[in-house]
Amino acid sequence: MRIKTLHTKLDQKLENLKSLMVMQDDVVFKEVFIPSYECSGLFVYINGTMDYPSFNEIVRDLSAAQVVSNHPTSIEQSVISKICSVKEQKVSTYEKAMEFIFDGKTLLFIEGIEDGYVLNLEKEKMRTFGEPSTERIVRGPKIGFIESLQENIGLIRQYSSHPSLIVKQHKIGSLEKRTIALLYYQGKASDSLLQEVNRRINKVKATDLQDSGMLEELIEDTTSSPFPQIQNTERPDKVLAALQQGRVIIMIDGSPFALIAPTTITMLLQSPDDYYERWVAGSFLRGIRYLSLFVTVFLSGIYISLVSFNPGLLPTELAMTIAGTRENVPFPPFVEAIIMEVTIELLREAGIRLPSPIGQTVGLVGGVIIGQAAVQANIVSSLMVIIVSITTITSFTVPQYGFGLAFRALRFGAMIFAAVLGLYGTTLFFIIVINHLSKLTSFHEPYFQPLDFIDKKTWKDALFRLPKRKNGGEPS
């Protein structure tokens, strides 16, 4: 249809709008009569998106409108100016009218008035604030973000009322418009970082952004790396801490996860618990996490290396014990490790996809039964079951799920290197991983920062959580 400008006659508007949206069965056209002016009005909206109590109030206001003059435009002065959104919007073309309708707005057309009026009667569909499901802590705030961008920004504003907190919003996508918000403290976030973040977001042309994870992949430095270069979080307290450090927060409408840029490896291994508990406990737990990463990736590989290539490095009694457990196992250590590691990953994936009560039962009972049955059937050794159980437990100590997932995948690489080259292969794989991490950047900032092994001053709050009076009370 080539008609662009709205007609003055209401019947013609209705006919044209219906012809433009003939395939849209959920679009509602509701006509009302305004008795004081003896003219009709037309509401157009999408069924299920409107707040009906507010809509009924507007209809009552129109019915009770007092006559200011005999011309229909006087309705603007008496009624419409009061019921429109705070920033009054009008539409004068069919294209713009359809854009507002499909955005969830309600349009009001009056007989004799060419322009249409935009009414903000959206009924926002969202859940209430609750405890974050992916970042649970023992002590600290128990509130997490939800899928509403404006509510999430309001939550940040509630905790930080400083006027230097800047919020900039963008719309990206050519088919499905998504609103993205950038949050930062003016004067703390560097100009170069802000320019780089804006440049990358402006280059995003995707039309199917449903979550911040999809945006994360489009704006990160190295897409081929298994490690996340942008931290995601559901926790407002982590967002506030990052803002105070001069970082930029990226939030997308429809996602409860905020993105923090730039990101370092130490940020991904820190938990709010570290700062809400005593510094000794925080340092101890942080050290446990670093040890857990090494165990997750290399314990199975070390087992394969020592049993297959370097049994002479084991104490005699331990070597005899391992040989006894593997006496009737027909497979080499690499094969039995692969069997158990793949099985445990399948159980873990099944436990996530199933409903919570069933998933926990499948994970616990399935792991115990399968492990016991595999040992009794002489498919794997009992020591291999213990090693796989340990690596599974240690992989859950990483606070950031995506970061832990990367190390779970690397575990299979370490096993392959160990099966081919023994301890030399395990060492070589460790060097390759460290070399890759040292080359990674996040928005051109080193991924290993502040783990500078030359300048020990940069270790502050990286490997250990020092007392607050020692580091100025600010986590880094």
Describe the structure.
- Helices cover 48% and strands 12% of the residues.
- By secondary structure, the protein is of the alpha+beta class.
- A 5-stranded antiparallel sheet has the order 1-2-4-5-3, sandwiched between helices. The protein has a 5-stranded antiparallel sheet with strand order 6-7-9-10-8, with helices on both faces. Strands 11-12 form a two-stranded antiparallel sheet.
- Strand 1 (27-34) and strand 2 (39-46) form a beta hairpin.
- The longest helix has 30 residues, at 279-308.
- The mean pLDDT is 82.
Topology at a glance:
Elements: H1 10-20, E1 27-34, E2 39-46, H2 52-63, H3 74-83, E3 90-91, H4 94-102, E4 106-110, E5 116-119, H5 149-159, E6 165-172, E7 178-185, H6 191-202, H7 212-219, E8 231-233, H8 236-244, E9 248-252, E10 258-261, H9 265-268, H10 273-276, H11 279-308, H12 316-325, H13 333-353, H14 356-376, H15 382-395, H16 401-421, H17 423-439, E11 441-442, E12 445-446, H18 468-471
Helix pairs in contact: 11-15, 11-16, 11-17, 13-14, 13-15, 13-16, 16-17
Distance between the termini: 59 Å
Mean pLDDT, nearest integer? 82
Question: What letter string, H or E per element, gives the SSE order?
Answer: HEEHHEHEEHEEHHEHEEHHHHHHHHHEEH
Contiguous helical run count = 18
Helix content: 40-55%
Q: What is the total tally of β strands?
A: 12
| Shape verdict | elongated
Rg over C-alpha atoms, rounded to the nearest angstrom: 30 Å
Largest sheet: 5 strands, antiparallel
Q: In what order do the strands lie side by side in the largest sheet?
A: 1-2-4-5-3
Low-confidence stretches: none
Secondary-structure-based class equals: alpha+beta
Q: Could you tell me the strand content as a percent range?
A: 5-15%
